[in-house]
Amino acid sequence: MGLTLLKAFLSGGTLCLVGQLLIDKTKLTPARILTAYVVAGVILGALGVYEPFADWAGAGATVPLTGFGNLLAKGVREAVAEKGLLGAFTGGFTASAGGIGAALFFSLLAALIFKSKEKY
User: Fold this and answer.
1) Which region, left, alpha or beta, applies to residue 44 given φ > 0 means left and ψ of -120 to 50 means alpha?
2) SS (H, E, C) the chain
3) How confident is the model at residue 118 (pLDDT cuts 50, 70, 90)?
4) How far is 106 from 108, CA to CA, in rounded Å?
5) DSSP assigned state of 47
6) Which has fewest Cβ within 10 Å: 17, 85, 86, 99?
7) pLDDT tens digit string along 40-79?
8) 72 contacts 51 by C-beta, under 8 angstroms
9) What percentage of residues in the chain have a pLDDT greater than 90?
10) Alpha carbon distance 32, 38 (integer Å)
């Protein structure tokens, strides 16, 4: 178990380190970097490169945004194999529905519990 945690920490930490370096050393906005991470996950997932990395790294590769992109690519690939061209439009939503639903639910819960404040 200790080695699994270490691999997850190092791989996830490396992904975060790269993102932080991009924020600090380039003029890219955080939104563009986040989008690039998702797109990189989709591309690496479509090429079949990300899945072996995710199997090795565990949550260090599946939790960051690159893992979300990989999940989208995997869902589309499976849905296209099952349903044809229509799967290209539905596969990503089907594969990521649980995560998106949880994010929406917990966002709503946080909005109900906490009060927003004006920034001055």
Assistant:
1) alpha
2) CHHHHHHHHHHHHHHHHHHHHHHHHCCCCHHHHHHHHHHHHHHHHHCCCHHHHHHHHCHHHHCCHHHHHHHHHHHHHHHHHHHHHHHHHHHHHHHHHHHHHHHHHHHHHHHHHCCCCCCC
3) confident
4) 5
5) T
6) 85
7) 999 998 898 998 999 999 888 888 889 899 989 999 999 9
8) no
9) 62
10) 10
Which residue do the tokens 């995710």 mark? 54
- Residue 87 burial (CB count, 10 A): 18
- Give start and end residues of each alpha helix (H) in 26-64: 30-46, 50-57, 59-62
Please give the average per-residue pLDDT across 87-95, as a whole number. Answer: 90
Q: Distance (Å, rounded) from C-alpha 8 to C-alpha 12? A: 6
Distance CA 88, CA 116 (A): 39
Averaged pLDDT score across all residues of the chain = 91
Query: For residues 57 and 12, is the Cβ–Cβ distance under 8 A?
Result: yes
Indicate the residue type of 66. T
